[in-house]
Amino acid sequence: MINRKKLKNIYSYAFQSRDDFLDFIKDKHKILIAVNAEKILKDDPRLQTIINENIGYPDGVGAVMALKQKGLDVVRIPGSEFWLDIVSRFYKEKSFYLLGSSQEVIDNTVIRLQDEFSGIEIVGYRNGFLDNVAKKELKSTLLAHKPDIVFVAQGTPRQEYLMDELIKIHPALYMGLGGSFDIYSGIKKRAPKIFRKFYLEWFYRLLKEPTRVGRQSVLLKFVYLLVMKKL
After folding, report:
1. 173 and 197 both lie in a single domain
2. Rounded to an integer, what distance in angstroms lies between the CA atom of residue 188 and that of residue 171?
3. Are residues 150 and 208 in the same domain?
4. What is the dihedral of CA 210, 63, 77, 197, to 10 degrees?
5. For the domain that residue 180 is a member of, what is the CATH number?
6. Which domain holds residue 211?
7. Chunked in runs of 10, what are the mean pLDDT values of the chain (231 residues)?
8. Is residue 57 within 8 Å of residue 13, measured between CB atoms?
9. pLDDT value at position 203?
10. CA distance 152 to 83
């Protein structure tokens, strides 16, 4: 049995392994949404509803700590890695559509996927810049080709809003990926292993992008709420 718990205003599932997560989503038509400290404390009722109606999973160490505090056995599942676990598990039996980032990034992502996963069925892809005309074309493409799995890399909450709109016209498994295509295509580098080992990816991102300081300040509030058991 897969458990989930409420963390402030949103629910997160607690998976004991990546294989458990992969088994759980095999035939689901839901949106996979990374849960971290920022999302847990974000005052966005629309986003909260989308998460609670779908599958939130512990992407951030803060979410893992909060779930463990509630007595659950749980592992952290980084979305930037797990989307490739999905590809590896299902590429021989399911079809894919990819959306997000720049044209250069999405082109390179598709080329690398086709090289690493021989025979993968990618029914379509496009960059993440959508006006009303492009969005209409996207919906027509999904209805025409009916991909089993759709990856959307636009950043929160934009990608969640879009996936919530798309799943209503084409049921499939959707997953928001943020900047994962940028990393996979080699445009951006992921945090070094030493940062990941000690759960300091957030600090590495802050060093690389000091403008994130406003967003990262939420971690102090999160730690306080965690210590006070108010999550």
Report:
1. no
2. 31
3. no
4. 60
5. 3.40.50
6. 193-227
7. 95 98 98 97 97 97 96 96 98 98 97 98 97 97 98 96 98 97 84 66 61 66 90 91
8. yes
9. 57
10. 11
Distance of CA 17 to the CA centre of its chain: 17
Query: Same structural domain for residues 138 and 202?
Result: no
| Residue 217, phi then psi, degrees to nearest 5 | -65, -20
Same domain, yes or no: 43 and 155: yes
Instruction: Decide: 152 and 163 in contact? Cβ < 8 Å.
Output: yes
Amino acid identity, residue 50? I
R_g (Cα) of the chain, nearest Å = 17
For helices 18-25 and 79-90, the axis angle rounded to 10 degrees is: 60
Helix, strand, coil percentages in the chain from 3-state DSSP, rounded to 5: 50, 15, 30
User: Looking at the DSSP assignment, which residues form a beta bridge with residue 121?
Assistant: 95
64: its two tokens: 């893992």
Tell me the whole-structure pTM to 2 decimals. 0.91
Residues 119 and 174 in one domain: yes
Q: Classify burial at 52, counting beta carbons within 10 Å of its beta carbon; exposed 0-12, middle 13-18, buried 19 or more.
A: middle
Residue 149 CB-half CA count within 13 A: 26
Q: Residues 95, 145, 55, 186: what is their CA dihedral angle, to the nearest 10 degrees?
A: 60
Q: Please count the structural domains in the chain.
A: 2
- Could you tell me the CA-to-CA distances from 102 to 50, 109, 130, 183, 213 in Å, in that order? 26, 11, 11, 12, 25
